[in-house]
Design brief:
mainly alpha; 7 helices
């Protein structure tokens, strides 16, 4: 017999009945500690490690307090690298093939017909 209840709902009912909740114990995280970690420019993962709680718990607490997400430096660096990458000039046929490939499903035989001459040229060049 299925009850069709989500895990969170079951946990909520168990807490109301003063029964132990299956899974991880809830760690109380103070708002002041979260604000201090956020002010130190820690992202969710670093802040959670500092406070000894789950990343989801830290993120939920930040959301409750209305704090914006601090991005880790490597994410900013990757985004900056993507934005500064020079645009590659493609041949008109290849540009058309690429733009059409996104509109087609991967199993569509038209993709192979569009890319076949370019793939053959690449294979001949590398051989």
């Amino acid at each position: 017999m299925a009850l069709y209840l989500a895990r969170g709902e079951v946990a909520s009912y168990r807490r109301r009945l003063s029964l132990p909740v299956n899974g991880k114990a809830r760690i109380p995280v103070s708002a002041k500690a979260v604000e201090l970690c956020h002010a130190a420019a820690m992202n969710d993962r670093a802040g959670a490690a500092q406070l000894g709680c789950a990343v989801v718990t830290f993120a939920a607490r930040c959301k409750e307090l209305g704090l914006k997400v601090n991005q880790p430096d490597d994410v900013r660096d990757r985004r900056a690298a993507l934005c500064s990458t020079p645009a590659v000039k493609l041949a008109p046929q290849l540009q058309r093939a690429v733009s059409m490939a996104y509109a087609l499903t991967p199993r569509d035989p038209q993709i192979l017909r569009l890319l076949e001459p370019h793939l053959a040229a690449e294979m001949a060049w590398t051989a």
